[in-house]
Amino acid sequence: MLDNNTVAVPRLAATHLSKWYGHVGALREVSVEFWPGLTGIVGDNGAGKSTLLKIFSGFEVPDEGEVLLDGHPVAFHTARAARTVGIESLYQSLALVNTLSVADNVFLGRELYRRILGMRVVDRRAMRKDADDALKLLRISMPPSRVGVKQLSGGQRQAVALARAMYFGARVVLLDEPTASLGPRETAAFLRIIRDTADHGETVVVVGHNLPQMLELADHLLVMRAGRIVAAFSPKETSLRELTDFMVGSA
Amino acid sequence: MTRVSGEKEAAALAQPTGQEADSPAAAEAELQQISGDSRALSLLRDASLLPVLVALIVFGALISPYFLQGDNFWGIGQYASSIALITAGEALVLMIGSMDLSLGGTYGFAPMLATWLVAPASAFGVGLNLNPYAGLIVLLLAGAAVGFVNGLLIVKAHLSAFIVTLGMLIGLAGVQDGLVDGQTISALPTCFSYIGGNFWGPVPVSLVATAVVFVVVGLFLRYRRAGRAIYAVGGSAEAARAAGINVDRVKIGVYMAAGVLAAMGGFVEMGRDGAITASQGYSEGVIFIAFASAVIGGVSLLGGKGNMVGVAVGVLVLAVVQNILDLKNVNVFWENAVYGLVILIALVIARVIGDRETQT
Ligand SMILES: Nc1ncnc2c1ncn2[C@@H]1O[C@H](COP(=O)(O)OP(=O)(O)OP(=O)(O)O)[C@@H](O)[C@H]1O
Ligand SMILES: [Mg+2]
Description:
heterodimer; A: 251 residues; alpha/beta; Rossmann fold; four-stranded antiparallel β-sheet; 31% helix; B: 360 residues; mainly alpha; 16 helices; binds adenosine-5'-triphosphate; binds magnesium ion
């Protein structure tokens, strides 16, 4: 994905990130770069993968280190702030309100307006239409966006969250084990969507435990262990065996 | 595998009903068809208990010739107005996934405080003889202040909503009692009894005022960002927070709005009575009627669901039942038993209908 890329700086990067939970060093001096395309992050339980994504998405604040977007330092303390600069994260249960419609969820906190008698009112029809359009771009089968989110399957819910990210022009999409709760068919479909998204020029970061899947999906693979990034590969030049060795620390 | 793109995976994401259309064109056609009749449907859905209300009205007309007569019929509207206002407040709090028992206290305390400040000492007032319009402002501020304190204790101090508002309910009732030593103030200034007690032709002013409030609250919930935020906070506070909604502020705002609505309800009830008694609110158990009306009207105790059309119908259903019981002179000792049974039946019906619903 990098061959036709003229950008000289990584879209998202971090230098010397450290995060401590009491005595646990969840992240230790992590420096990393994310370019357009799909970067996979693998690692054993507790390696610090989720912590890294949480810092990029504003859910956690690092104890040390800096986050750079397009080469410029950024600091945010809320998910809202991260979203404002175009960093979207998808957490399966966290992101959607079950009792609201698909359209309401896509536009949650960023509603579209029209004016009636000079007063700004939420434009429900425009939101439904735009939500339907955004979901159509993902080429998945969805009920109309006025339907409640609780009627959706796990994969469709993920798609809604992704459509939301794309609609608002996300520059970076962060996914933490996005297919963990999906069945095989839904997993395949959702992976196709995020692969499309990456091919479209977005910067997509996926944390996953399924190594063969990650090898097939990603343009770049990072291996984390004990709060550090211990290896970086192109999937073509590595193997399951090598990945596993780095994950458990026997390499 | 991941490079393969096409309808096969797309179909995999379809709902497991198996009814999903196969080709995109067919899916789209179906989509159009579903959304075509949605507007008419959504209005009906809001009032899913409307058939029950109609049935009750027919029933009432059949068993009592007096039921449909003007003064009885509009009287139901007048009686229902004050209940509707406090129920609207409770509904908002339920929508954010909480509860507020203290609205029953505010319903008596706020009008008592205002009247006590306004009424002359000879009529159990404090003797300040406050301007009645200033008294009105005190009334609304009292409702907001109680809600604000509730909100702070529940949201910021993380205390249980049940315990906080229970304590507040009892405390407010005590102050209401204490201000007038358990007496009744019946020397109301005209502007205190106008809305609750007067009629425009056959139509009670209170009913018109309440309808206006319901329309405003309903439009607010549906068309303002803060209104949408109430549903989001009640549906999932975590997701709302992730979407950048200031959850604490929404919650505290709702407790305050609910307090104001309860104060308004108490104000209307005072006007209907032509007096404010020490027992209005807490002692007459109005909060239970408000809870029942809200839930019958389709507001979920779990939060995130409900609307003002449903709440209005819920209030009217119980008000009509109450009226029928009164008209039939059901033995007063047994009246509550019948009333309770009706509430349970209405809840079951509301649940059965509500389970088919999909939207807020
Ligand atoms: N909120 C927290 N409080 C205390 N410790 C935490 C917290 N979050 C993470 N940790 C610790 O930080 C370390 C890294 O956790 P993290 O969730 O980033 O791991 P992970 O790589 O995502 O693991 P998994 O694959 O199991 O999801 C772990 O030791 C974990 O116990
Ligand atoms: Mg994790």
